[in-house]
Amino acid sequence: MAVGGRSATPEVIWARPERAGRGPRPAYSRADIAAAAVRIADAEGLDAVSMRRVAAEIGCGTMSLYNYVPRKEDLYELMVDAVGGEYEFPERPSGDWRADMRALAHQTRALMHRHPWLPGLMSPVYGFGPHVLRYLEYCLTCLDGLDAAQGTKLELVATVNGMVTTYVGNELATAERARSLPWSPEQENAARAAYLGREIATGKYPRVARAFAEDPGPVDLDAAFDRMLGRVLDSFT
């Protein structure tokens, strides 16, 4: 039994017709709905995405939208898959699985910076739409040269995505905090560096002192990303 287009039993949005119920040809496509939701999230954040806002964006009534998208969670799934269509894959992998996975990880990082709400939805719950399945198939094709079971290869893909999501999440949080402060990032860093210098000078933290003496910073975020990614990939050989 369905109420307002919403099923009382579990279902996957991709297994539903584009529009529930009888009547004329659907006036909107899932791509239209997903694009509207993505525009709102990009401009105002994920919290701004609601069925009412998306309905207004595409020009239909809120209750009418439920005939296309039964739940907000389904809307999230459409959004994740829509931005997954932004990946650019070569005609075939290079044959060097490490290089190919590195390239994909860099695309994922860029994708998350274009859509800062995406790390918050990186979950298998929202992960198996058509574009995401295309991405996963390409990843496994890249890994044809890795001597490992298919399950291990899936774990590699999940581990790389987890690392990228965490890394970008920290980058985005740092940038958001900097925007909220009444002073510049340079002033903030100078104050923190002065504090750390005083604490280290006490001699209570010799290992921390050696670590900072070895690499006083600032941290090259791109180089650090590459190093961390390399360590993840090396762990699967």
From TrEMBL:
Keyword Transcription regulation among record annotations: yes
Keywords in alphabetical order: DNA-binding, Transcription, Transcription regulation
Pfam families attached to this UniProt entry: TetR_C_1, TetR_N
Domain HTH tetR-type span(s) in chain numbering: 27-87
Start-end of DNA-binding region: 50-69
Superkingdom, taxonomy of origin: Bacteria
TM regions (residue ranges): none
Protein name (record): TetR/AcrR family transcriptional regulator
Source species taxonomy: Bacteria, Bacillati, Actinomycetota, Actinomycetes, Kitasatosporales
